[in-house]
Amino acid sequence: xxxxxxxxxxxxxxxxxxxxxxxxxxxxxxxxxxxxxxxxxxxxxxxxxxxxxxxxxxxxxxxxxxxxxxxxxxxxxxxxxxxxxxxxxxxxxxxxxxxxxxxxxxxxxxxxxxxxxxxxxxxxxxxxxxxxxxxxxxxxxxxxxxxxxxxxxxxxxxxxxxxxxxxxxxxxxxxxxxxxxxxxxxxxxxxxxxxxxxxxxxxxxxxxxxxxxxxxxxxxxxxxxxxxxxxxxxxxxxxxxxxxxxxxxxxxxxxxxxxxxxxxxxxxxxxxxxxxxxxxxxxxxxxxxxxxxxxxxxxxxxxxxxxx
Length: 308
Description:
By secondary structure, the protein is of the alpha/beta class. It is 44% helix and 15% strand. The protein is built from eleven helices and ten strands. The protein has helices at 26-45, 62-74, 86-98, 124-137, 151-166, 182-190, 208-217, 236-239, 255-268, 276-293, 300-303, and strands at residues 14-20, 51-57, 79-81, 103-105, 117-119, 142-148, 170-177, 198-200, 226-229, 248-249. The strands form two sheets. It has a five-stranded parallel beta sheet with strand order 2-1-3-4-5. It has a five-stranded parallel beta sheet with strand order 7-6-8-9-10, sandwiched between helices. Strand 6, helix 5 (151-166) and strand 7 (170-177) form a beta-alpha-beta unit. The protein is elongated, with a radius of gyration of 21 Å. The two termini are 35 Å apart. 41% of the residues are buried.
């Protein structure tokens, strides 16, 4: 197979490629555009930026990600930021690695990380650990869970079992579900409702209305059982659900995000997705590393240096 030699940009500056799902359907495409905007904002706000950004649309598909990374390498990218989706990282990561170019992926699936493929993301494991820490501190001892049958759901399922075992919290039931099987799964959990004091529901805004309805039909009352979730609950549609009013969930501190969001809205006239800060930070870091270390900035040695 042919290898591509990086070509310097017209300005002689370092190129960083952003592999984003810009034309993907639905919320994925909306997120892709928000991430692109955040990257451009970081370049504008970094004084003396020395990195040129190459935007590549992976279309939200594995094949699109493979093509996007190959194009970025041909155009001389020294490193990649993205992709967002785990399947795209799995598909494209080996191509970047074979070319000796690091990938800073945005996936929350720890399983796609590898030497040369790093994750810059809010990991669901941290959400689960923090939520169970708080629940245990409040005297909760037995937990059940309704977990979506998705990659994200698999990650939080594993984290839940590990976190509960370390805190001596008894797991009474774990039910995985799809949109079609949610009602039946909730009914099964409702059948053992007297045996648990906490119900873990890592659902997001897209599915929260159906979840609230399923819990109601299953006779699960959020006033009698403590509902807990992840940062996926940080969504107006979740917060508007009265049945989740007394729930607990873990999420990153919002103080820094508020300032970022205000600047983003002033610039683009819309609200950013929460993970837009990750791309903003990644572009800032790329500029800082490049200014400090030049051509060797994106070697594995420098990206994994112990003091950050």
